[in-house]
Model the fold of this input.
Amino acid sequence: MLASGEVTGVRLLASCSAYEERTEMQIVQPVLTILSLCGLVKPAYAYIDPGTAGMALQVLIGAVAAVGVTLKLYWHKLAGLFKQKSQGADEKPNPE
Done:
């Protein structure tokens, strides 16, 4: 019985070291890939005109407006949720 237990222990130890090597490789491989791709980057010499900045500003204003309208439409539901929770906490049981 000891011999089979020793063999099992050796297999278990071997599988643990293989797991550690595989885990290290899973970390090292993406890092090496990213570093090697960073070395291949070339300058684009691109130009962003003022119209692009205006369009980006319009997108930002539209997003703020959409959030505002959504809050306005659902304000009563949101306020009701908080009001129910706060009313339940404010009510004190009658000691009588």
